[in-house]
């Protein structure tokens, strides 16, 4: 662990003078002819365009395969051989082309190009040093670059970064091991990797906290001990979905468990979202039960994203994908002439609120108007009864639902 987090050079820090963080020597040290050394390499260090490309691996170097990907190894002077990923394994540019600007087309309204350049240069140096390649800061930087590339529309590059950070996580023993020493890094990696790929990239622990996957919160395990599976207003639901809904209903409705901190809400959302999206497809032997369970599955995934809000990176792409599945299964229930007022109202509400600004938003609005007439929803209080009968947590997001339903109610009165 580093003894200090400061970025200024030692001379400027001692003199309590502002350092411009230039490398290899800051301007003040050059002017004063001081010995300029940094306790930590500054993140804003300027790439040296005259820096020569790294030499090819010497005869002492070796190559190995770990988790199906090629990694290079180098022998440390004072320690054993430590593996480090090649640049291509994490989607970085070839170090030999370090002078190129990979963000020529980067939109100026997002992260400034110079900041992205410095991030890549800093990360490249980290990965070239096998003692730093698996540090938290390196993993955070790779995930950040994945988000940047995803925002630019470079899906393939973004996935390369995510594949690289997943191998880093594997090398450190799994996402649970990373969280044990670096909770913030584990949260960022697991959450952002799901958002930019549109699918979970890590398994979850089981309901009792066993396994190397993403960890639940203590309330999740307590909810399993304190409640039996609750009947969902006569709904025939798959046992796996019934378990998830029952635990969440206990957490949301039990005052002692529902006082979640923002960190606990994030961890719960990450765990439940992964758990939901990792569920295997249901058997078509019981099509109604399958469609009901799938509606609950995808509507609940949207609800957790709504409760959570935006953290680290926008979840709009993931929500859009989930809405397509929710719409598909709602249409399947309609074709089977299956009608359930509370389920329909609840699922449509999730799509209507999560879908604001998307192409499917109007479809959910139209469904809400039909539900209002079919189920006799005259007031917001009528709607709230249906929402609470499935799953509901009274938070500030309640106003989002009330606002959308008032639009519907005002149009039909």
Automatic annotation (TrEMBL):
It holds the Pfam family Zn_clus. Gene3D superfamilies: Zn(2)-C6 fungal-type DNA-binding domain. Residues 40-65 are annotated as: Disordered. Residues 8-38 form the Zn(2)-C6 fungal-type domain. Coiled coil: none annotated. SMART domains: GAL4. Keywords: Nucleus. GO terms for molecular function: DNA-binding transcription factor activity, RNA polymerase II-specific; zinc ion binding. Residues 42-60 have a biased composition (Polar residues). InterPro entries: Zn2-C6_fun-type_DNA-bd_sf, Zn2Cys6_DnaBD. Signal peptide: none annotated. This is Zn(2)-C6 fungal-type domain-containing protein.
């Amino acid at each position: 662990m580093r003894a200090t987090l400061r970025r200024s050079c030692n001379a400027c820090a001692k003199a309590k003078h502002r350092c411009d963080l230039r490398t290899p020597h800051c301007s003040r040290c050059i002017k004063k002819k001081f010995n300029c050394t940094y306790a930590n390499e500054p993140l804003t260090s300027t790439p040296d365009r005259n820096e020569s490309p790294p030499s090819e691996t010497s005869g002492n170097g070796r190559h190995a395969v770990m988790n199906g990907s090629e990694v290079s190894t180098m022998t440390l002077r004072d320690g054993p051989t430590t593996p480090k990923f090649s640049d291509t394994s994490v989607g970085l540019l070839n170090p030999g082309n370090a002078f190129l600007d990979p963000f020529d087309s980067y939109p100026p309204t997002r992260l400034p190009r110079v900041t992205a350049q410095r991030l890549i240069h800093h990360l490249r140096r980290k990965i070239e040093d096998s003692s730093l390649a698996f540090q938290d800061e390196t993993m955070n930087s790779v995930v950040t670059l994945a988000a940047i590339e995803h925002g630019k529309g470079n899906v393939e590059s973004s996935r390369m970064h995510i594949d690289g950070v997943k191998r880093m996580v594997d090398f450190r023993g799994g996402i649970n091991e990373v969280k044990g020493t670096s909770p913030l890094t584990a949260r960022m990696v697991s959450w952002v990797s799901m958002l930019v790929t549109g699918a979970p990239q890590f398994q979850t622990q089981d309901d009792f906290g066993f396994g190397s996957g993403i960890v639940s919160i203590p309330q999740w395990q307590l909810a399993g001990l304190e409640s039996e599976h609750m009947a969902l207003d006569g709904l025939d639901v798959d046992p796996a979905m019934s378990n998830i809904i029952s635990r969440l209903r206990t957490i949301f409705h039990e005052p002692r468990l529902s006082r979640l901190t923002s960190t606990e809400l994030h961890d719960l959302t990450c765990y439940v979202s992964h758990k939901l999206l990792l569920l295997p497809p249901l058997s078509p032997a019981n099509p109604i039960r399958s469609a009901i369970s799938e509606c609950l599955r995808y509507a609940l995934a949207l609800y957790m994203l709504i409760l959570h809000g935006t953290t680290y990176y926008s979840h709009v792409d993931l929500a859009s994908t989930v809405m397509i599945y929710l719409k598909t299964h709602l249409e399947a229930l309609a074709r089977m002439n299956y009608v359930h007022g509370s389920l329909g109202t609840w699922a449509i509400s999730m799509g209507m609120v999560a879908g604001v600004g998307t192409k499917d938003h109007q479809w959910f609005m139209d469904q809400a108007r039909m539900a209002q007439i079919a189920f006799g929803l005259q007031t917001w209080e009528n709607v709230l009864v249906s929402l609470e009968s499935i799953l509901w947590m009274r938070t500030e997001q309640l106003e989002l639902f009330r606002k959308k339903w008032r639009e519907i109610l005002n149009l039909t009165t």
